[in-house]
Every structure is written in structure tokens, then in C-alpha cells.
């Protein structure tokens, strides 16, 4: 059994509930608003806003990849908590649904550009980013 001071406990939750949990991780890598952040056991405490991107959880020779769509990460006492707007484990991603979401977002972006609707354009760009993130993670 691993020494508690040399492993991470990782939890990813959304408003809909817990999406992921691992009690013995070696490394967590996420993309924050300031850039990429890697957390290993005994890292200094941190709180950071997350970008729409992949969260990687490494343990032994394995890596779990989770599509994280915004939110924030908090780390202290070897506990990593990711509170995300939404998140999906790689094996739970419905690729067909993600492709449809990508196509829908691309259509809405074009419509918003033609109408000079900045609010709809920004929302559609975020939707496109989320769909592409999910598609990319499903291919790993």
C-alpha cells in the first residue's frame, strides 16, 4: 500500500454529481487560465480556474483522461478537487453526439457572424470548443 503522503486523491464533480474518483494517483495535469499545471504529491496548495481541456490523471503506468469543460481546481493536503461545469470520462463520451454538437456550433457561429451577434457568437465558440475537446479525448 502506498504511503498517503506520496499519492494524490483525485475527485472531479459537476453540478450533476461525481464524475471521477481515484485514491492513489501520482500526477494530475490540467490546463488553467494561466497555462498548464501539473500537480504531484506534496505540491503547494493551489486554486485555479480551468480552461475547456483535458484533465489527465496518471497512476502507475496508466493515464485516465477526462474532458473538463471549465470550472476550477483546488489542491491541498494531497487532495485534488476539480469542480467542473461539466465533465466526461473518456469511455463515457458519445462521439456521435459530440460530432452533432460540433456541427450545430459551427452553424451557429456562421449565423452569429452574419447577424453580428457577439453574444451568440461567443456562446457558440465555447460550445464548439467543448465538442472538439470531447471528440479529441474520445480518440485517445
Automatic annotation (TrEMBL):
Q: Does the keyword Isomerase apply?
A: no
Residues forming the ATP synthase epsilon subunit C-terminal domain are: 91-138
Q: Which organism is it from?
A: Apilactobacillus ozensis DSM 23829 = JCM 17196
Q: Topology with regard to the membrane?
A: Peripheral membrane protein
* Coiled coil keyword on record: yes
Note the InterPro entries from the entry.
ATP_F1_dsu/esu_C_sf, ATP_synth_F1_dsu/esu, ATP_synth_F1_dsu/esu_N, ATP_synth_F1_esu_C, ATPsynth_dsu/esu_N
Q: Supply the name of the protein.
A: ATP synthase epsilon chain
Please report a single Pfam family linked to this protein.
ATP-synt_DE
Q: Which residues form a coiled coil?
A: 88-122
Tell me the SUPFAM superfamilies matching this sequence. Answer: Epsilon subunit of F1F0-ATP synthase C-terminal domain (SSF46604), Epsilon subunit of F1F0-ATP synthase N-terminal domain (SSF51344)
Q: Name one GO cellular component term.
A: plasma membrane
What's this protein's family per the entry? Belongs to the ATPase epsilon chain family.
Entry's Gene3D superfamilies? ATP synthase delta/epsilon subunit, C-terminal domain, F0F1 ATP synthase delta/epsilon subunit, N-terminal
What are the protein's UniProt keywords? Answer: ATP synthesis, Cell membrane, CF(1), Coiled coil, Hydrogen ion transport, Ion transport, Membrane, Transport
Tell me where in this chain the ATP synthase F1 complex delta/epsilon subunit N-terminal domain is found: 8-87
**Assembly with partners or alone:** F-type ATPases have 2 components, CF(1) - the catalytic core - and CF(0) - the membrane proton channel. CF(1) has five subunits: alpha(3), beta(3), gamma(1), delta(1), epsilon(1). CF(0) has three main subunits: a, b and c.
Function text = Produces ATP from ADP in the presence of a proton gradient across the membrane.
Q: Name one GO molecular function term.
A: proton-transporting ATP synthase activity, rotational mechanism
Q: Where in the cell is it found?
A: Cell membrane
